[in-house]
Write a structure and sequence with these properties.
With about 280 residues, the protein is α+β, with helices and mostly antiparallel strands. The chain folds into two domains: about 140 residues, Ribosomal Protein S5, domain 2, CATH 3.30.230; about 130 residues, Alpha-Beta Plaits. Strand 4 and strand 5 form a beta hairpin. Bound molecules: (3R)-3-hydroxy-3-methyl-5-(phosphonooxy)pentanoic acid. (3R)-3-hydroxy-3-methyl-5-(phosphonooxy)pentanoic acid binds next to helix 4 and helix 5. One of its GO terms (biological process) is isopentenyl diphosphate biosynthetic process, mevalonate pathway. GO terms for molecular function: ATP binding; mevalonate kinase activity. Pathway: Isoprenoid biosynthesis; isopentenyl diphosphate biosynthesis via mevalonate pathway; isopentenyl diphosphate from (R)-mevalonate: step 1/3. This is Mevalonate kinase.
Length: about 280
Amino acid sequence: MTTSAPGKVMLYGEHAVVYGYPCIVTAISERLFVSEGTAVGDTRFIDAAVAAWGKPGQKFSARSSFSGKYGFGSSSAVTVATLKALRPHATNRELFDMAYKIVLDIQKVGSGFDVAAAVYGGTLYYIKNKTIEPLVIKDMPLVVGYTGIKADTVSLINNVAQKKKENPEKVERIFEAIAKLVDEAKTKMIEGDWERVGKLMDFNQEYLRDLGVSSEKLESLISAAKSAGAYGAKLSGAGGGDCMIALHPNGVQGKPLVEKAIKEAGGEVINVTTNAEGVRVES
Ligand code: PMV
């Protein structure tokens, strides 16, 4: 049996989501596939899934349509796809609960938004330990650009925790402002008001900059996208590198111009579509 789970792109609310505030995540067309067979490389997540739901000696191998360096959530996707292979009839809730437990045991930190995207797919409004709400949205005019720099999520989460310790009121205020814009983004995405959705990305980016998780390379890709006419742009995920996202305007020139600008600024454009299907049995 082969199973697969999608990767994800964080649209709004990263970091704040770790502290109980909402975020919006979309599952992407890049997928991670798991089949029976001997694994190579980092097998911690597969091993933990087998220890939870499998029989001793069961082996699985993973392959993905995307590179692990992009930060598309391969650890969560491999965990979810392996659990699905072990129990194809488990409910999404059962898959989510077990996969999130495994990811937390191994990584120690994380909101579980990437696990939710891998299990449920689509586009989700997510609050840790509380809400997984699918959003019905139209095709998002999203462009994804990779900085070429692999970010370390755990140390960025720790940096924000340190900042919060030093200046709790300020960081709490930033999180509250992010939560407010996430709620507005949810409404505007459902309406398909991409101009406003883009503006809200800009606001989110300002707060992420204040949290200290942006980088020079991210900023240069973001400003290049905006100069080329993007409705808005921001980093996506933990920051420090990894990917940025931008919303391109309609019209034949909208997308190519934004993509060209990101490339000229030294970024790699990654072609993905959003709102992809969650975990599934392939064959
Ligand atoms: O680096 P990524 O794409 O896994 O995103 C991390 C997002 C954080 O909010 C910083 C952490 C989390 O688990 O929610």
